[in-house]
Amino acid sequence: MFVEISLDRDKDNPQRIFESLNSTGLELSQADLIRNFILMGLKISDQKKIYNNYWEIIEKLATDETTNKSRVSDFIRDYLTLVNNKIPNKGKVYEEFKTKYPTSEISDLETNLTPIKSLVKYYNKLLNPKNENDNEIRLQLEFINRLEINVTYPFLMKVYEDFTENVIDKNTFFKCIGINSVICLEKIYSWITDKCTK
Question: Which residues contact 96 (CB under 8 A, 6 or more apart)?
Fold first, then answer.
């Protein structure tokens, strides 16, 4: 059965209708809600501009290339963790995004999406270490990836950016990503030791 719903831009709020559809059991990701929140209030030409220049790039890069699984919701959650200094609930990423970026004016959207688009390049390498050309860094990223130390991704994205922009040197960057692995191994060792002594 097909149902067609026609909306009048001047009278109806498409985003509110979209949100209410989501609450009826339709499985929409936090990224789906954010994408529609960003695009729905724009003219068609502006929608194309924002989608092509920002959102499509974010969707492409925030993908686990091994499983071909989208990680946009996780990426936006990590980005919001970085900029807000608090971790949003996985089911509240869209709400947090709306609170942080309440406007859908084209100029504001470009300002808000530029740093998000910038950091997604590093998120891509955290998800897909094979995309890192430097062998030493790639090996460390593979180790982090295998251990699933994704709680450190907000920090690592920013450190990665600092390294790429020559704010820190390779040695400092390497120490930063290495410390994450050591801390994780210490926690694993502590947990194993604790379990073995009981």
Answer: 80, 84, 88
Nearest to residue 93, comparing CAs of 170, 138, 34? 34
pLDDT digits (tens, 9 = 90+) for 83-110: 999 999 999 999 999 999 998 789 999 9
- The rounded distance, in Å, linking the Cα atoms of 107 and 67 is 35
Q: What is the pLDDT of residues 21-79, one digit of tens each?
A: 555 555 789 999 999 999 988 999 999 999 999 999 999 999 999 999 999 999 999 99
What are the backbone dihedrals phi and psi of residue 11, each rounded to the nearest 5 degrees, phi first? -110, -30
Structural contact between residues 170 and 138, judged by C-beta atoms closer than 8 angstroms: no
SS (H, E, C) 35-94: HHHHHHCCCHHHHHHHHHHHHHHHHHHCEECCCCEECHHHHHHHHHHHHHCCCCCHHHHH
Residues 6+ apart with CB under 8 A from 62: 70, 71, 72, 74, 75, 120, 123, 124, 127
- Helix, strand and coil percent figures for the chain, each rounded to 5: 75, 0, 25
Q: Where are the domains of the chain?
A: 7-120, 128-198
How buried is residue 7: exposed, middle or buried, by Cβ count under 10 Å (0-12/13-18/19+)? Answer: exposed
CA 72-76-78 angle, to 5 degrees, is 115
- Determine which helix (DSSP H) or strand (DSSP E) holds 149, and give its type and residue range: none
